[in-house]
Amino acid sequence: MSMSILEGIKSPADVRRLSREELRTLSQDIRERLIDVCSRTGGHIGAGLGVVELTVALHAVFETPADQIVWDVGHQGYPHKLLTGRNDRMETLRQEGGLSGFLKRTESEYDTFGAGHAATAISAALGMAAGRDVMGESFKAVAVIGDGSLGSGLAYEGLNNAGHSDRDIIVVLNDNEMSIAPNVGAMHKYLTSIQRNPLYNRLRSRIGDLVDSAPQPFQSAGTLLRKWEESVKSFLTPGVLFEELGFRYFGPIDGHDIDALMDTFAAVREMNTPRLVHVITQKGRGFPAGEHGEKWHALPPGHDPATGKQITVSTGNPAYTAVYGKGLAEIGAERRDVAVITAAMPGGTGTAAFAKAFPDRFFDVGIAEGHGVTFASGLATRGVRPIVTIYSTFLQRAYDNIIHDAALQKLPVIFAMDRAGLVGEDGETHMGLYDIPYMLTVPNMTVTAPKDGTEMLGLLRAAVEHTDGPFSLRYPRDTSPDVPAAMSEIPATPYATWEVLRKGKEMAILAVGTMVGPSVAAAEALAAEGFDVTVVNCRYMKPYDEVTLAAILADHTHILTVEEGVAMNGFGAFISSIIHRQSPQVRTAVHGVPDKIVYAAPRKKQLASLGLDAAGIADRVRALHESEALAG
Q1: Which of 99-108, 113-122, 309-318, 489-498 has the highest mean pLDDT?
Q2: 390 sits in which H/E element
Q3: How far apart are CA 596 and CA 294, in angstroms?
Q4: Positive or negative CA dihedral for 356, 430, 118, 30?
Q5: Phi/psi at 339 (nearest 5 deg)?
Q6: In the sheet where 362-364 sits, what is the strand order?
Q7: Within 197-238, where are the H helices?
């Protein structure tokens, strides 16, 4: 069996030795390899399949790694990994100790800038270009950014600064009309106008016919016609905006045409002022089950590429996201004042059902989390009950808006934070470990976490009924331990209350959210050893249950707090300071995620390694008991 061209690629230098016909074959090899590997490892396959030819052309023209290519987000980075010496390790993609699902500076010299969140590429590449000029170096800086990221304010800030700088920087706009879901907003409409503008397309077709059929003596007239076509294009294409921002515009170009890409990049590489290459690609191109951009954005391990479906279908309880989405749609039916806001992820956040049922009350703002929060705050001023549903890791990007626009004005904006806590194979860029500290510090903010799906819906109802300031609710990327009833049967969880699940003495565990179940299991295991441990479900972290806390402090000498989030400045630190003021004789200990980066691994393994499962919590209780015995 003959070796594929891809198998012979050890670095981009090998790519640069290939003919254009061989580059086209290489592109097909890459697609086949990605489809095969991701069917076993899972991953963000859609974006990678869409940028195969683009990636090949970039590495064929630019002198990487000397030239710096900055890939936005990292979803686009799988073909790049295959061409930069990592093909033989692709089977470890998103596995513990394996290749990252995103780009990572410590993984390869070709990964010039780590990225897991959108719209960073232009700013980073401009910083590299400025650093090059300061240090007297000579290389090209290229930012590859998806059109979905242009909905983010950070991208505009980078474009504005880069165009004004007049530095040697290239921006490649990968236009596939998608981020994760189909793009929204004025920029999306602006970019797609060229592909659908009948006047320009008719003019271009007619000019081509005239030039191609013109006799030899009239070829110079054909050149004039082509120049006139370029003038017309400047009025009818997206280039006008970028030209006004200080970029020389090239495009739009077929992003699957190796010849057009290489010719354009070769010409652009020789220039030294800001330029933007607009490339049209198709997300999910070549996927056997069909080129459905959002559906195949990311797939879990163990799917059949021919259908996109899981080979082994789970028959367990529903995921928290599914429970939330169903309850959200049901509460939307109950109340006409409920509206939902998400940031380019209606499918991933479970909000698609609400969007389908109530399209006039559903707002996908694109990759613009800060705008989404301030927009929701504006809705709240008119009596609407806005529910901002965004991954915990992405809501970090809107922190100023949460404080300034929602909290300081005591507006009743609800923040439903999906993927809170450990996120398994998605890795460090998507960890939702920081929302407890960042929400606890916000004035007027209610901070909550449910122990199961039913309590999540009870807290959601409580949030909708709460009108005295913003309200946050966190839930994990995991299966719910229960199967909740219909939303109509679930009452609001009483405000600022805890729940004593097991009554013991001396030692009490104050558990938050996902840690409640493991804490109860740990207490049951410890009971067989003679430890009588109280377990409290601290579903409201702020405001806390003053009555229950006082009762616990009166009956116990030791408190252990347990949370699935960073221990530094988290719930444990917060409540320990209160306990110290009220009952300084009570000893407290905090159990959570330590001050370190947590890398990709199965979620269950991450929890166990951090001592955040029943066994780990029990071990911590034993260790505390032993340390006290030694001290006593």
Answers
A1: 489-498
A2: strand 385-391
A3: 33
A4: negative
A5: -130, 155
A6: 362-364, 338-342, 385-391, 414-418, 471-474, 446-448, 540-542
A7: 198-213, 219-236
Lowest model confidence (mean pLDDT) among 240-249, 374-383, 418-427, 480-489: 240-249
**With the CA atoms of 277, 283, 285 and 290 taken in that order, what torsion angle do they form, in degrees rounded to the nearest 10?**
-160
Catalytic residue among 369, 455, 563, 564: 369
Residue scoring higher pLDDT (195 or 567): 567
Q: What pLDDT, on a 0 to 100 scale, did the predictor assign at position 313?
A: 63
Number of C-beta neighbours around residue 206 at 10 A: 12
Helix 52-61 crosses helix 258-269 at what angle (to 10 degrees)? 40
- Per the structure block, which two tokens stand in for 540? 């409201």
Q: Residue 614: exposed, middle, or buried by beta-carbon count in 10 A (0-12, 13-18, 19+)?
A: buried
Residue 237 has pLDDT above 70, yes or no: no
Question: Mean pLDDT over residues 317-332, rounded?
Answer: 96
Enumerate residues 6+ apart whose C-beta is below 8 A from 218.
none
Residue tagged active-site, from 94, 361, 397, 620: 397
The DSSP line for 324-336 is HHHHHHHHHHH-T
Report residue 423 CA to chain centroid gap.
11
- Percent composition of the chain: helix, strand, coil (DSSP 3-state, to 5): 50, 15, 35
Owner of token pair 């003019």 = 203
The overall longest dimension of the chain from CA atoms, in Å, is: 105
> End-to-end alpha-carbon separation of the chain, Å?
73
Query: How far apart, in whole angstroms, are the C-alpha atoms of residue 488 and residue 329?
Result: 11
Q: Rounded distance, CA 29 to CA 5, Å?
A: 7
- What is the DSSP track for 549-562? HHHHHHHEEEEEEE
Which residue in 86, 167, 275, 283 is the catalytic one?
283
Q: Which two tokens stand for residue 520?
A: 């109860």
Is-catalytic flag, 369? yes
Q: How far is CA 48 from CA 29, 296, 365, in A?
A: 13, 11, 24
CB 469 within 8 A of CB 445: yes
Annotated active-site residue 283? The verdict is yes
Q: pLDDT, tens digit, for every residue of 537-596?
A: 999 999 999 999 999 999 999 999 999 999 999 999 999 999 999 999 999 999 999 999
DSSP for 355-389, please give it. Answer: HHH-GGGEEE--S-HHHHHHHHHHHHTTT-EEEEE
What are 172-183's pLDDT values in tens digits? 999 886 544 454
pLDDT, tens digit (0-9, with 9 covering 90-100), for 81-93: 999 999 999 999 8
Q: What is the CA radius of gyration of the chain?
A: 27
Tokens encoding 470: 């913003």
Give the whole-angstrom CA distance, residue 343 versus residue 363: 8
Torsion-angle region of residue 611: left (phi > 0), alpha (psi -120 to 50) or beta? left
